[in-house]
Amino acid sequence: MGTQCRETLPPLQDLKVTIQNSCLVFPNQETARRESMFLSNIDRVLDFNVETVHFFASHADFPPQTVAEKIKDALGKILVPYDFLAGRLKLNAKTGRLEIDCNGAGAGFVVASSECTLDEIGDLVYPNAAFAKLVVNSLDSLEKDGKPLCIIQVTSFKCGGFAMGISTSHATFDGISFKTFLENFAALAGGKPLAVIPCNDRELLAARSPPRVTFPHPELVKLQTHLGEDQPSVPVFDATQEALDFKIFRLSSSNVSDIKEKAKTNPSARVSGFNAVTAHIWRCKALSHSETQDPDRLSTILYAVNIRPRLIPPLPESYTGNAVLTAYANATCKELQEGPISKLVERVAEGSKRMTDEYARSAIDWGEIHKGIPHGDFLVSSWWKLGFDEVGYPWGCPRYSCPVVYHRKDILLLFPDIDDSNSVNVLVALPSKEMEKFESLFHKFLSD
């Protein structure tokens, strides 16, 4: 059926990257000064960096040195409409809230080179630990006024290709708004106007006054914080200390279509690719659990839902902040083992449908009262349809775009395939025995 479990050669561990120079880049013209930017309750629990790498083939008209100059110039330009990116995170002593100090302290820019060629790196889809060398999230020389919210590193390869590594605080963007940022960045790099005017008003997602929690929120858990302190930086799931196997399972476009067909309750029913794939990997992950074989054990899966079109009135598509909330679905192990895939897809779809305007506002208000983070057995993080590799720069679209990932047992990642946008790669990290079970179930449920 075209399914593959990628067994790759040992990943290249040293890209032989040398940093040549680094500097701060400032807005290239005066911006409308404001003291600080309000962060919503979604933004302020995301105080950690997201690192992405965008690989480009060589281009005769754009050697890496030229590209680096254009990227640096575009960074200065984009810090005008995205002025908050030149600021710094700070805790407001009066309110106890995390916010962005719009002090114009600048974004980071780094030029580096690698002794490798793109072909020597090999399979770009395979999230290589060495990719961490292609992005910088901290440089002492850039942090005299605090840690930059955005650092861009341009790394040239011996073949003339290059990588653009971008590190941003997750408090600044979600995946959708980061895609818009990239489109605007590409436009400015090509001497064009902004593709989209960004909406920087985070107060659109402020809690109601007084806050009203009108739904139970089992997908969220409270954290203990001291009075007057904002939410500490805590990951959704703690990194396990166990030794983990690491594999990528590829679902071809025909595999995805087959799962969708099996999930239909009637011939005219519409099933999304995300819901179908998520239901499939949910049952594999839950049933591979080594500790409990209890058929009545409840498994809870978490996944992000874009709330922009769900609010009343809808948020602008150009909203720059985090406008995704965590949806959940649950089922017993018996239901996951024996139930038809259609029922599991319905559970996933119900989690998304639950995210109405009132539910979203209730979740935001819950964060105002309790503070906390998403809570479940595991999270599906999807980069599948974000389309970072569709952004057209003056030197072309990326050969591939991906996040720098760190192996986490309780986070399953969905990535686009390099050749077929309707295929999907599922990145899994599990202890050896659980991985064996996951792989067996993955193929079994596909062939049922």
From TrEMBL:
Molecular function via GO? acyltransferase activity, transferring groups other than amino-acyl groups
Top-level taxon in the UniProt lineage: Eukaryota
Family membership noted in the UniProt record: Belongs to the plant acyltransferase family.
State the protein's name: Omega-hydroxypalmitate O-feruloyl transferase
Q: List the source organism.
A: Salix dunnii
